[in-house]
Design goal:
The structure is a single chain. By secondary structure, the chain is mostly helical. It folds into two domains: 3-20 and 144-202, Endonuclease Iii, domain 2, CATH 1.10.1670.10; 29-129, Hypothetical protein, domain 2 (Endonuclease III, domain 1, Orthogonal Bundle). Helices cover 59% and strands 0% of the residues. It has helices spanning 3-16, 29-39, 44-57, 61-76, 82-100, 108-112, 119-129, 139-148, 156-166, 172-185. α4 runs antiparallel to α5. The protein is elongated. The chain binds iron/sulfur cluster. Residues 147-148, 186-187, 192-194, 197, 199-200, 203, 205, 208 line the site of iron/sulfur cluster. It catalyses: 2'-deoxyribonucleotide-(2'-deoxyribose 5'-phosphate)-2'-deoxyribonucleotide-DNA = a 3'-end 2'-deoxyribonucleotide-(2,3-dehydro-2,3-deoxyribose 5'-phosphate)-DNA + a 5'-end 5'-phospho-2'-deoxyribonucleoside-DNA + H(+).
Length: 212
């Protein structure tokens, strides 16, 4: 993607959705962290279904610890990989209580030190809970960044670093949400819907998918 196309690419996504939000439901940084941790290889809809029951009962690290492993599993067993996620969440809660006074830390290093929290999860928490302009590269962002030529790269980290360089500062805070939503609903994996894509004029992908 030409450098001159990047500004109108994001301006178009912004015009359609000025204040994009995560589709995960949460009301505190800890709820967000827990929801993101549970969402790996699962749908946001599925995670929301489980957390709507879990969070009213336990939405702090100590309250999750008090549930115990089996208690927690009972709330999240509809989510894929729930056993390992429950284990990670319990261990993360223990560390939050022991090292951070039950609060979610605000630095990448401290977040990534938590069990089950990788670079992508840390980026989501830093961006959504704390307003940092991070790029949490998931499968959708990885695909859209490569397909459009916006930030091509062989690994999620390569794409992330390229996005940080190429996305104009005014769009950095919301860029990852716009790209996720675009990838989830328009620039979908199998057959991108180029015929109804608002950013088609700026995208390098060829040939564009014609209308069915
Ligand atoms: S034109 Fe097609 S490939 Fe390009 S961003 Fe839009 S849907 Fe994706």
């Amino acid at each position: 993607m030409k450098k001159t196309a990047i500004e109108p690419f994001f301006a178009t996504l912004q015009a359609a959705n000025p204040a994009p939000e995560t589709e995960l439901e949460y009301s505190t940084p800890f709820e967000l962290l827990a929801a993101v941790l549970l969402s790996a290889q699962a749908t946001d809809v599925g995670v929301n279904k489980a957390t709507r029951k879990l969070f009213p009962v336990a939405n702090t690290p100590q309250a999750i610890l008090d549930l115990g492993l089996e208690g927690l599993e009972g709330y999240i067993k509809t989510i894929g990989l729930y056993r390992s996620k429950a284990k990670h969440l319990m261990e993360a809660c223990r560390m939050l209580v022991e090292r951070h006074g039950g609060e979610v830390p605000r630095t990448r290093a401290e977040l990534e030190a938590l069990p089950g929290v990788g670079r992508k999860t840390a980026n989501v928490v830093l961006n959504v809970a704390f307003g940092e302009p991070t790029m949490a590269v998931d499968t959708h962002i990885f695909r859209v960044s490569n397909r459009t030529g916006l930030a091509p790269g062989k690994t999620p980290l390569e794409v992330e670093l390229k996005l940080e360089k190429r996305v104009p500062p005014a769009y950095r805070l919301h860029a990852h949400h716009w790209l996720i939503l675009h990838g989830r609903y328009v620039c979908v994996a199998r057959k991108p819907m180029c015929w109804k894509c608002a950013v088609a004029p700026y995208c390098d992908y060829k040939p564009k998918t014609p209308a069915p």
